[in-house]
Amino acid sequence: MKLEWIDTLAWNADGLVPAVAQDAASGEVLMLAWMNRDALRLTAQTGEAVYWSRSRKALWKKGETSGHVQKVVEIRLDCDADAVLLRVESVGGVACHTGRRRCFFNRLDEGRWVETDPVIEEPASHG
Amino acid sequence: MKLEWIDTLAWNADGLVPAVAQDAASGEVLMLAWMNRDALRLTAQTGEAVYWSRSRKALWKKGETSGHVQKVVEIRLDCDADAVLLRVESVGGVACHTGRRRCFFNRLDEGRWVETDPVIEEPASHG
To answer: What ipTM does this complex have?
Structure first.
């Protein structure tokens, strides 16, 4: 039997893998989220990022409410097949639920976390 | 009592967080590994990436045997404090234990994983 591409992945005990979203144009790392099989399959089929929300225990179509969809340019898998990299177009330029461009807006600076990025949009409608 | 920067993190049930290493010069996402408190503290203190090997259950100083050390330019934390981003200088230009530049060398292409990156060094001595 031929192994399907999605069976290659080394899903963890919860059936998940971490997925890193990177802005395909700027190279900026936007966020890290989680995917189960359905999320990854839907992401590949639709060309738009779908994650698994561990808090809500539900599929989470990125941008469903906010409009900040992530259009997938490329899906990559690492050497151990236990992490995914999405290179995406971040529609609206906001990937974080706080209304920032990216989720990694805290930088360690002499023993303190310093917020480096401004809020671009009010966070009410993100997700 | 003042909360120390390392106490900000939302460690998972195993006391770990995923850490993404990104080449600070090229922007390329090199790998995803895991850190516990000691690994992150040592990374911050020494300025070179230290991870936690889940398979060996031990601290793993990147490049200890191979020489492919990752010099840390910047440590970032995401909005939920459960993922770390390291921007690094990848010494020797090889981050993957397979001897490739990065671990994410498989690209999904019409339902198949295709290796896109050449092996730069024989993999014997990496880690």
So the answer is: 0.94
